[in-house]
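Researcher: Next sequence.
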Amino acid sequence: MRFKLIVFDWDGTLMDSEARIVACVQAAFADLGERPPDRQAARNIIGLGLTDAMAELWPEADDMQRSRVADRYRSLYRKADEIPSALFPGARGLVDRLLKRGFLLALATGKSRRGLELVLDETNLADRFHATRCADEANSKPHPEMLLQLMDELGVDGMETLMVGDTEYDMRMARSAGANALAVSYGVYERERLLAQRPLDCLASLSEMHAWFERVKAP
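Model: Next structure:
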C-alpha cells in the first residue's frame, strides 16, 4: 500500500467526543420542550453537519423548529467546550509519526469551522494538517465534496488518498470520491456496520492503527 494523503475524521477518530455530543443533542431538544432522541439515535448523527443531523433526528419538523434546536445545541456545546475533550490515547503520536514520514495530512469533519479551530487550538495540532474542510464550507458527509476539495487543493488523486473515519458517512464519502477508506471501530459505529461499507480494514484501537500504518509505504 502506498498513499500520499491521509485524511482523518475528527470526532470519534482522533478525539473522544461522543459523550459530549450525545449529551448536548439530547439537552438541546429537552430545553426547548421537545422529546430528546435516544442515545443511539444521537450517536448515529455524529459525523454529519448540523443541518443534516437535525433533519435526520427530527424529520417531521420544519426548518424553523430544527434551526431552534440547532442553535441551542451550538450554545450548549460551546459551554461544554470550556472543559476540552481528550484526544484518544495515541492519536497525537500517530499524527506526528505520519507527518514525520512525509505524508500529507488533512481533516474532513462534520464540525463547523469555528468548532474545528477551537479544538485544534486546544490540542496544539493545527500545524500538523496541510488542509482541512468543515461541514459549513462544503456539502456534509457522505457527499464527496469535502474530500474532493482536499484532493484538489493538495494535488493528489483518489488512489493516492486514504480516508480514516469511524462512521459509514466517512466510508461512503471516500467511495463516492474514488478514494480508499480505513475504518475504526473504537468510535461511534460497531465493526459490522463499518465492514458493510467495504473499507480496506477495520481497526479496533489506535495501537492497531499505528501498526497498520507501519505497513504502508511512505510517499
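Model: Residues 18-80 form a domain with the DNA polymerase; domain 1 fold (CATH 1.10.150). The CA atoms of residues 139 and 208 lie 31 Å apart.
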